[in-house]
Amino acid sequence: MSDIVTKKKIAEKPVHQERSREKRNRLVKAGFRIFARDGYEGARIADISREAGISVGSFYHRFGDKRGFFDILIEEYTARGISNWEIFFSHANLAWSIEELCERLIAGDARAVDRNMGLFSAYVSLGRKDVTIVEPFRRMDLEGARLFLAHLQQRGDSGVDLLDLETVHFALSSIGKSLAFSAIVKGSTYRPQDPYAIKELALMLQRYLQLR
Q: Are residues 91 and 57 in the same domain?
């Protein structure tokens, strides 16, 4: 059976020692680099192990198979994404204009997408076959929307009183999908970090949320 879809996900083996934890972290970092470079289909366990300087046998002992490993990377990526949302809004200046706020928010999202194009390509590919892979990204987007809405309410911009979490979540999720699509589709007119694309997407976000 292909490892793209498995009936039962293999749980990661627990880390008991510092040395084991260090190996695990090296494999995870190498996995991000290889999946970002090669996507899901192109990524090979041998390449990940070589990049990490760890034997293939140690990889299988820790993660079971490529799909189980990819699930760990998704959880790591989305946990880091939530942390980045928290950092962004903790440093967001209430004196920024709504235009600057939206542009900075989308620019940060675009950088994350650009750094992990292969990961998003794999996400799209696997998501067609296994809907469980979508849930970590949904949680990440929802937390970003919650923080964005709380920040907007603190700012008190005109139109904020009409917003709810579902509306903000839909807007941020749609922007994220647009950025991911522009990153993974060859020949796309605009790339995620193009200044024009960021400015226009920020304007779309502002208008959709009717912020003034």
A: no
